[in-house]
Amino acid sequence: MLLINFLLIMRKLFSIPLFSAADESIINKDPLSQSGMSLSIGMLRHVPGRIIKNEESFSESFIPEHLPHREKELKLLESTIISRSGQIAGNAYIMGRPGLGKTALSLRFAMNISREIEVKYLHVNCRKYRTSSLVLHKIIKGLSSGLPERGLSLQEALMAFEDLVKEKNILIILDEIGYLRDGGDLIYSLFRISEGSGTRPPAMILISREWTPDYLLDRSIFPFITTKISLEPYNKEEILDILRYRAEIGLVSGSYDDSILLMIAEVAARSGDARLALSMLHQSAMFAEADKADKITPEHVRMAISMDQPLADRRALMSLELHEKLLLLAISSLLEKSSDAWIPMGRVEEEYKMLCEAYGVAPFKHTALWRRIKSLDKTGFITTRRSGKGVKGQTTLISIEGAPSFSISSELKKDLSILLKIKED
């Protein structure tokens, strides 16, 4: 039933057929579906429930009060852009891959200083407003609704901007400036707007991804950038701290435990992307609520991971050799029944031998099995690690991250029953 509900959600999320005609007949016979109780994307639209207490805390527009592991960069902005006289002066350039907190860092800084001094801050995403005229019109609209939004040349808009700012503290955040096609003229003009007019120039924070637009390297622009910050990817421990903080804000106490957050952190740490980690946590919570569970389980996390980082396609699964399939079935079956995210190698071997007996296949010995475990790990079907604290002795722990264990075991059971001509009970 969980498999059918998961696939229904996936189909509605992505508007793609996930079933053959034969599969559709199974769903149509599902009593929950007939009674209107099967899961749908509508059920994933949150109503405060058992798991999620603050839906807004998982939205991309949410700026948390604290930014774990970005405190140093926040202090750097505060010390270099706010003068002793309480005015803002100076410009910053923040660079880094997606998901490293560039926008959150800039907006948190703006929100913090607005509590201490009188300042007007404006955030413009240049991926949406891709020309200097569009960006400047957006800024002017944020300062005064009385001016025409369009119909002004860049020079006329700059003159209107001068009249509006005068002696005010203005902070402009230009996000995704790599998409700003003619940004050099605009940024140069804003940096030098005080020349000949006495207008206080706005402070600016420029944000880009890994590359620096050529116009920023121009000698007439680059010296005006007083603070340069390059954000590094988060490591596993840092992502875990971020997840703990956001879970405390957004999830019901007791609806998750640290092992769930660690499971997500281990996957997201490969890219260092905190946004991905938070998306996985949010989706895991939604799946748990749709499942009417009291807690987020490893299986809910695997379902969420499969949406963000899909496992290899069905052909790759079916191309595994017989004993790799039996091993993977043993692993997925154990995980499906377990509340733990990791299974010891010893239990996997026991389950594998039982499956071999059930299917009438002679089992491999430990060395041959270990070679196939390493092969499955290398191809991404499973993840392995050595046991640590809390586990007696040293053993290999095995998990599946890229897909729900029930969906893998279901596919493998169907394939093995055909392959070995065995009718399932």
Q: Can you put this structure into words, describing what you see?
A:
It is a single chain. The protein has 425 residues and is of the alpha/beta class. 48% of the residues lie in helices and 9% in strands. The strands form 2 sheets. A 5-stranded parallel beta sheet has the order 2-3-4-1-5, sandwiched between helices. It has a 3-stranded antiparallel beta sheet with strand order 6-8-7.
Low-confidence stretches: 3-46
Q: Calculate Rg over CA atoms.
A: 27 Å
Helical residue percent band = 40-55%
Cα(first) to Cα(last) distance is: 17 Å
Shape: elongated
Structure classification: alpha/beta
Strand order of the largest sheet: 2-3-4-1-5
Q: Into which percentage range does the β-strand content fall? A: 5-15%
Biggest beta sheet summary: 5 strands, parallel
Strand tally, please?
8
Chain-averaged pLDDT: 82
Question: What is the number of helical segments per DSSP (H or I, 4+ residues)?
Answer: 18
Write down the secondary-structure element order. HHHHHEHEHHEHEEHHHHHHEHHEEH
The protein's oligomeric status is single chain
Features:
single chain, elongated, alpha/beta, 425 residues, 18 helices, disordered N terminus
Compact summary:
With 425 residues, the chain is of the alpha/beta class.
SSE layout and pairings?
Elements: H1 2-14, H2 21-28, H3 31-34, H4 41-44, H5 71-81, E1 91-95, H6 102-116, E2 120-125, H7 132-143, H8 154-165, E3 170-175, H9 183-191, E4 203-208, E5 227-230, H10 236-250, H11 258-268, H12 274-290, H13 298-308, H14 314-318, H15 322-337, E6 343-344, H16 345-359, H17 366-378, E7 383-386, E8 396-399, H18 405-419
Parallel strand pairs: 1-4, 1-5, 2-3, 3-4
Antiparallel strand pairs: 6-8, 7-8
